[in-house]
Amino acid sequence: MIPAAFDYHRPASLADALSVLDELGWDAKLLAGGQSLIPAMRFRLAEPTAIVDLNGLAELERFEEADGYLHIGALVRHATIADSGLARERYPLLADAAAVIADPLVRNRGTVGGSLIHADPAGDWGSVMLAYRAELAVRRVDGDRIVPIDELFVTTFMTSLEPSELVTSVRIPAAGTGQGGAYEKLERKVGDFATVGVAAQIALAPDGTVGAVGIGLTAVGATNLRAAAAEQELLGSSADEAAIASAAARAAAESNPSADGRGSEEYKRDMVRVLTARALRRSVERARGTV
Amino acid sequence: MATTTSIAVTVNGTERSAQVEPRMLLVHFLRDELGLTGPHIGCDTSHCGACTILLNGVPIKSCTMFAVQADGQSITTVEGLTRNGDLHPVQDAFKEDHGLQCGYCTPGMMLAGAALLASNSDPSETEIRMAISGNLCRCTGYQNIVKAIQRASRAMAGNGAPERGKTEGGEA
Fold it and tell me: Would you give the DSSP letter of residue A206?
């Protein structure tokens, strides 16, 4: 199917992109990888009158550790992370998730920033960034700000960003010893959206107890959800099987799935429990392996 | 709106210039404007991979990119896999191993396979299956597709030349 007509802008710099956005406001849609936007336009679910193509803006392709963070530029492709030695060695939660997003062809094109801002509750990066307690670096013509991931998602396909704002990068705390994470995704087939997904990131204290934990849930609510009660359950525990089972049960209870072709509400809720336990077990194993 | 933009794209090694509406999908540009019907349209949902092309050597779905975005880029379609009239080892292997039934997914499968072998000359069966997991074969003929990519891998390991017509026993 053919998308509705639009004006095409390909800014030569980030400053130009911000000016165009400032001028066009809600009329403009940012085009990053296009793997969600273009299908939506083909179905006329989205009919933006202007497209601002960010591809080619090198300042959005940063992927490096600096100043105590890992910075992931908004245009970094899923495949770049899936193939990254840095991600595999130090940020296994990132590497896990990147490898199971959509299919290899989509991963070659789709971006971290675009996926996050699309704010699809079935998107994988939202849960990952909740688990990492990520922050978004956001720019507009007359300033910039940092948006904590917990303040990003408003509801399905809606974020707290203004139409004149652009995400330049996402940053997560740089990896340290005693940390580990994992992503577990249940899907009917390669390329399908998650039936349920669970991201976990753990930091062990010197005495081996859980010093910090983040758990994000995919496709079981109006947005990616933080499993806050499950995090509290695990915090300070020795991360033994009993503590993991309790936390997993909490996560299931605080998830809010809807029945659809992928399963009943009851089934999905139980899959949250199963996948949370698996993600936590693997996170703990990996955290212990780094000490 | 509905104005056109001029683009210059290197397609299969040849620079092609055109005026395109921004909303024109790359696959439509390749098929309808350039007459390259190798990229097929098998779905409307970015699922099937029949429209796979290489963008600067990287396999992507040409139905999920606008033609205007290809300005200044290099594209390879299945028509560009041959070299000086010789089949690419992947094409040769698909022929030898009967790696196709109806043929609809074949251009995408061969490009996905060729891209894999360009970055990983000796992939495992699992790696091959992962690499083609964005390409759907509705005949479910995956077994011979995987065998063909394995054959191409072996052929490319020996001199990098296509082993046209050779049997298993003829390999180095």
Answer: T
Answer whether A45 touches B (CB < 8 Å): no
Residue spans per domain, chain B: 5-77, 89-157
Residue ranges of E strands in chain A: 7-9, 28-31, 50-53, 63-66, 69-73, 135-140, 143-148, 153-155, 158-159, 166-173, 179-186, 196-204, 210-218, 225-226
Chain-chain contact of B23 with A5 (C-beta, under 8 angstroms)? yes
pLDDT digits (tens, 9 = 90+) for A89-98: 999 999 999 9
| Complex confidence, ipTM | 0.94
Other Cβ atoms less than 10 A from the Cβ of B131: the count is: 24
As a whole number of angstroms, the distance between CA B90 and CA B81 comes to: 9
Q: Name A143's bridge partners.
A: A140
Structure confidence by residue, pLDDT tens digits, A225-244: 999 999 999 999 999 999 99
Chains A–B, number of C-beta pairs less than 8 Å apart: 84
Quick check: A1 contacting B, CB < 8 Å? yes
CB B60 within 8 A of CB B81: no
Contact across the interface for B2 and A105, Cβ inside 8 Å: no
User: Is there a contact between B134 and A1 if contact means CB atoms under 8 Å apart?
Assistant: no
pTM above threshold 0.90: yes
The correct CATH number of B5-77 out of 1.20.1530.20, 3.10.20.30, 3.20.20.70, 3.40.640.10 is 3.10.20.30
Closest CA to B60 of A5, A233, A104, A286: A104
